Fold each of these.
Amino acid sequence: MTTLEPLELAEEARRAAARVRRFGAWYAAEHQIRVWRRYLGVNIASAIGTPVLYLFAFGVGLGVLVTANAGPAGVDGVSYLVFVAPALIVTAAVTIASGEFTYPVMQGFKWNPTYIGMNAAPLSARQIIDGVVLFVGLRMLTASVVYFAIMAAFGASPSPAAALTVLIATLGGLAFGTPLLAYSATLREDRGQFAVVQRVIVLPLTLFSGTIFPLAQLPWFLQWIGWLSPLWHASELGRVVSYGAERPGWLVAVHVGYLVLLAVAGWLLAVRIATRRLDA
Amino acid sequence: MSAVTEERALRRGSVRSLYAGNATAVVVRGLQATRSSNWVVVISGFVEPIFYLLSLGVGLGGFIGTVTDAAGNHIPYAAYIAPALLAVSAMNGAIYDSTWNVFFKMNFGKLYEGMLATSLGPLDVALGEILLALLRGAVYGVGFQIVMQVMGLNLAWTALLAVPAVMLIAFAFAAVGMGITSYFRSFQQMEWIPFVLLPMFLFSATFFPITVYPEPIQWLVQALPLWHAVELVRGLTTGILSPLMLVHVVYFLVLVVGGLSFTTRRLRALFLD
């Protein structure tokens, strides 16, 4: 073992600090990935099992009922399976987002305060939040790739451009998730707020968002929920790339713009809130 | 030394050592604990199945029209799906209460250790916890029934019997769920619960008749508890009754008795032996 001279030590410390300043967000993400390994078994099982089950249930099983009624022309000009598949992949990403951006955030601030620990090391609040978003983004991306492969195996993605649903789903998940992250970062006490948010906000945004049936099927007084829901905007985008659903250009632009706006605004807000909380 | 061994031997022997006849103490304690917790959480549990009913029944229903059941009856889609949602919410409620709640109380609250140190036996604790879950389930079940009635989805007077049916179903799921939870040691393992429930939720004739599957898969589905639950409740709310429904009732009675004895034995093994 070589001993370092005090000057060398100081130099080494400076270099390490510079590395953290530059790659801090990735270090924070790496931490999350290492923790994630503990859940890997159940995660892999559900990443593969969930799409298979949903595609069978909604695409195939429910498809029989829909076809019996709507005729072979199906929904939106395609079979029900093809119609529903892009929405299912986005829903999967949104489910991951609503899981990862709630309880684990509370845990990081409070129950097992790793954020506080990271912040005591030279990571800034911004880097910690960036790391969390990076990790969840990566997780959604991986799950979406698996989902897409299974979708393709079911014959539910007719055009090559359908592969873009992977990115759309991840964007949709972030648009849904970062505002939730910002909210979670404000919570200091668990009084069941997450359960309430899940039931009163996340669930309606999921159910009334034109995913397993066209939004127009809902009475007019419920349709606005779909317009607010990132899930609807992302599913519609998925349909455009997946089977070339005909949507006006301006509407496609609105979909993209709304999703990016939500994702970025939520992200920035979360950084602000975390900074105030950790630096206080 | 020998006195202790003797007492253990006695405990094993009789039901009285497992049950002090005071499950109500556990129920009352649970109600008092609920009073100090967030009521919004309890109420929001009630709106959940209603959102599902509005979305799937109204939205998807306008799309699908009617469903033809195995006997050839045409049922409006919303009326087809509503009893299934009622059965599912009974299952979910019972499973949630008997898994997550029990997991917390067992591993963090150390509540049962405290209870069993008193004169209460493991059967008191198991019964008390399950009765508590049933009480909440009954409130949700009645609420959902009222919504179904208002929406015109109860097609026969036998729908009144759906509430006791739902209680029986919830009892069975809770009794089995609590026993299984006693084996879990970490949060990560708990993630398997939704993973096991999901296929049951999707395929138990909840959203479409099982006749869309090949026959061997139909048999598999028919072995699962949720299928029996859905069929039982649907038969009652649509008024399409059949002698087969007695089989469903017996199925759940067996689960109740089996689950209770399993859970009691587990609690005894964990805390008393």
Note: Residues 3-271 of chain B form one domain.
Amino acid sequence: MTLSPPVEIDSKTPFWKTLLEKLRQIPWTWRITLVYLTVMLFVPIAAMFLKASTEPPARFWEIATSPLALATYNVTFVTSLAAALLNGVFGTLIAWVLVRYDFPLKRIIDATVDLPFALPTSVAGLTLATVYSDNGWIGSLLAPLGIKVSFTRLGVWVAMIFISLPFVVRTVQPVLQEMEHEIEEAAWSLGASQWQTFWKVILPPLFPTILTGIALGFSRAVGEYGSTVIISSNTPFQDLIAPVLIFQRLEQYDYSGATVIGVVLLAISLVLLLAINFLQAWSRRYDSK
Amino acid sequence: MTVNEPKFHSSTAEKDIVKPKKPKSWVPTLLIVIAIAYLALVQYIPALNVFIQAFSKGVGPFFANLSKPAFLHAAWLTLLLALIAVPINAVFGLCAAWAIARHNFPGKAVVLSIIDLPFSISPVVAGLMIVLLYGRNGWFGPWLQAHDIQIIFAFPGMVLATAFVSMPFVAREVIPVLEEFGKDQEEAARTLGANDWQTFWRVTLPSIRWGLLYGLILTNARAMGEFGAVSVVSGNIADKTQSLPLFVEDAYKQYETEAAFSAAVLLALLAVVTLVLKEILERKTRIKDVE
């Protein structure tokens, strides 16, 4: 009872004082983390949003939805999605092969899946542009068919496929690894064909995980700059991607133009981050069932 | 079979029984072939191409390209960027990992997402944010100009961009290890009279060393390989603010394809070393897990 008066006083002290008191009790690891995050992440993000907010909303909308900007969104998002979806299919297949089958050089192949994470993007762009150019190793095979890859939208697609592939494989692989073999065997013993087993037993619980991988790959492909800028001809309305547009605006000292497109991209990556978190929670819920 | 089951404890014995049930088919072979063909088209052929193009005219021209001043300067700058950004991010990553793994608080998932944010922000947007802060018309622009400090189109800006994009790796790799390791041993060390620093140095660090090393390798790879963010803030001036990835692009654009590929080989070797070390470390942690 004698202790109650100080508590009452404490509740009357202004909010900022208790906040300061709490801040003083924070361990120094937290302080370093918070200061670094503030300097490196929060302040820059705030600077960008504030800069964008100095534009009147109508002007903001006008820049954000100018025909050129819309065309770059189209190239960026549609191409990223196409790349991520293709990797959804082939990435799952690669993960499946790596988990379920044994074959020579499997360990090396498993390790090299991460190559796009480790290879600098400008090197990736350089070599993809060469390999898929009209006289490159693969491009020369496609050229007679009338298919041009390097310096077209197809090239941008190839670069996005390259950088987003490991996301799908590495997301699906551990989940496949932990899946119990018995359920499949039960399906077989009940007379299901391999195809039916895959379609009705394996795929449904794996689906949220595959979607997560696709979303991660998509999110990376949308922001990708290095490899795509080199393999693309950066022609407006054809293969110009949104990050390159930002870069071009900056080169012309058009800061507000760059900022508006930047805010659009940032907002979309934040939405994607939320979606990925949601998808991961969903696949975990599936797991616990 | 159910009676005998305990005897078939080894996995090979189990396989012997199960296998005959499965219809032998061509499906696995087909799937393996498709998987490898896809990887070859997307990854292996392009990777091989880097090396073949670089040495297409022999070893002599390759080394001639590598001894040009512009290249040497770019390589030196890349090394310097990594030397500054990696330690800074290691300290931050360790602090963040400790703060997050050792405390339970509401909104932990949100904090983890915030740490991951630099991965989902486009490198160009990251560079743009740095320009908006430190550029001529940026928040700190007037102050910096008054004090004659140049950040954008100069080395400090490149450091900031590099540190930004490689920020989360250490924290990300160390958090799960710290969580798994638990704090029993740390508490034991404390009750035996060790101070914070001793506990960290003698108890925590040895147990997280592989995870930390893994994070450092990834940080280094990203720091040395970053292109987008660095190219926005650096202005890409040859011999001044050109890192190796920028050199590759610049040489390619100027139709000096061989010089571009010579530099690209070095960066590709960096990637190979990264992958090999990654594999070794993963195996080490896996073996520890089994133990």
Note: Chain A touches chain B through 84 residues (CB under 8 Å).
